[in-house]
Amino acid sequence: MLTVDELVELEVLISEEIEKLQVRSAESAEEREAITPDVSIGRLSRLDAMQIQEIAKEGERRRKDRLPRLEYALDLIDLGKYGKCERCHNWIPFARLKEQPETLLCAGCA
Ligand SMILES: [Zn+2]
Predict the structure, then answer these.
(1) CA distance 83 to 6
(2) pLDDT tens, 29-82?
(3) What is the pTM of this model?
(4) Distance, CA 28 to ligand 1 centroid (Å)?
(5) How do residues 80-93 score in pLDDT, each as one tens digit?
(6) Who's near 95: CB < 8 A, 6+ residues apart?
């Protein structure tokens, strides 16, 4: 079971993570606009630009996926239901939560 101190630490961690993801999303939107392929660059560099764009999009997808999970974790903390594995209902170790605060499963069930 998590102590109050651990819970507070995780809550801060999650809030910071949410903030970081939001900032990163804003930056990435600018980047995607900046690398719009244009006719003045060669074929190879255009491919590079497209590849970079794909990577940026993939990162964005992952962030979009992670953000609601982090927000859900905050909700669970508010409800006093955070830190229990959804499948086996055992407590998820603090170390695992610190590494992956949005996780809903213990290492055994994941
Ligand atoms: Zn479990």
Answers:
(1) 10
(2) 777 777 665 556 677 787 888 888 898 889 888 888 899 999 999 999 999 999
(3) 0.77
(4) 35
(5) 999 999 999 999 99
(6) none
Query: How close is the Cα of 69 to the center of ligand 1, in Å?
Result: 17
**Range list of H helices, 3-107:** 4-34, 43-79, 94-99
DSSP letter, residue 41: S
- Distance from Cα 93 to the centre of ligand 1, integer Å: 10
Domain ranges of the chain: 4-82
Tokens of 25: 């999303």
**Token digits for 69?**
């999970």
C-alpha of residue 88 to centroid of ligand 1, in Å: 4
Compute the distance from residue 58 Cα to the ligand 1 centre, in Å. 29
